[in-house]
Amino acid sequence: MSLKNCHNARDFRDLARRALPSPMFHYLDGGADDEWTMANNSHAFDGYELLPNTLVDVSKIDTKTTLFGQPMSMPLLLSPTGGTKMFHPDKELAVARAGADAGLMVSLSTVGTTKIEDFAASTDGPKLFQLYVFKDPGLTRDLISRAKAAKFDALCLTVDTPVGGNRERDLVTGMSVPPKFTLASLLSIAMHPQWVLGNMRSGKIRMENVADWIESQVKTAGGGSAAYIDARFDQTLNWEDAKRIAREWGGPFVIKGIMTPEDAIRARDIGACAVMISNHGGRQLDGAPAPIDMVAPIREAVGDRLELVVDGGVRRGSHIVKALALGANACSIGRPFLYGLAAGGEDGVARVLKIFSEEFERTMALMGCPSLAHISAGHVQRRISS
Predict the structure, then answer these.
(1) Which of 85, 131, 133, 227 would staple 223 via disulfide (CB 3.0–4.6 Å)?
(2) Taking the CB of residue 330, how many other CB atoms lie within 10 A of it?
């Protein structure tokens, strides 16, 4: 199968599975514990039916919107993802270029494999920096300062990782820190020479924005890289800290990992302009509800004073329409564009985004909605189970 024969996220997943060694594919593809939440994130969209209006002039479809104050070609955000160089040597830079060409906001993670400054220089489109808070406050301040200097348009604080999720696929393959690859994993790596050569040419996979700090932590604490994992994130992080970070940033501030109306209200009240309704793609708390199921109750709780982004399980342009009808402002994707990246680099990402755009525009036309303003709660209903 080639990129031109990929017509949906499943097709790109199949190509990514062929392109990547087993440990890297399962790191990308897997979730926590029984992976119920990861699977339910997508399945939950099937619980909603679309109600179209007919005899509407849809000869022109306008998908444009704004998010966090930035103009975008459609209500779709490219989520921050860590370790992106594991999937393709062009890493986040390929994602940034494809996203900018598509007119979409792109994101860089604290644990990304590209420096803040290099990522910012690679795109003139809207961009978001995702922040993890480490125990060293100096590191947090430095990351915020660098993102400001690089002119990122928004800061996103992730709040659902006080500890790492139990990702059993990684235990099976040996995708740990440091890696403990099994014989089967090493054989899979050896059977993917193109992946091996790509990474040999492009250098070591490093979390570029925190790599020096990690090395200093390992040196101080001893015990190898595992010491970094033990000391990774600040488990005392609280709402007052979030409020302080919002003030320090001084621009559009987003909180990622909100799953309840109560926490959404708190986010609004401490100065967030938006929340990403997210369970970390099912990679943290297994048993959490699907983000799409939390849109309506959160919107009812916060009113119109907070932008809502559905993060998790979005695999079709029609999913975006369902989310908007329920009260969201936009959706975000992670795995779909990473599958595209693994399958074909920048061209793979670009094709994924093109398919989402075509599906979204087509769904709007079939719904009788010539612009986003026409999408309303009357266009969606809960599916009646038989």
Answers:
(1) 227
(2) 27
48 CB contacts (<8 Å, ≥6 apart)? 292, 322, 326, 380, 381, 382, 383
Rg of the chain taking only CA atoms, in angstroms: 20
Active site residues: 280
* Side-chain-facing half-sphere of 114: CA atoms under 13 Å: 27
Q: How confident is the model at residue 221 (pLDDT cuts 50, 70, 90)?
A: low
Tokens standing for residue 283 = 């990679």
For the domain that residue 66 is a member of, what is the CATH number? 3.20.20.70
Asked whether the beta carbons of 245 and 279 are under 8 A apart, the reply is: no
Q: What is the pLDDT of residues 15-30, one digit of tens each?
A: 999 999 999 999 999 9
d(CA 360, CA 323): 12
Sole residue written with tokens 């010539």: 370
Domain that holds residue 167: 3-382
Q: What is the pTM of this model?
A: 0.95
> 213 and 136 in contact (C-beta within 8 Å)?
yes
Predicted confidence (pLDDT) at residue 286 exceeds the cutoff of 70: yes
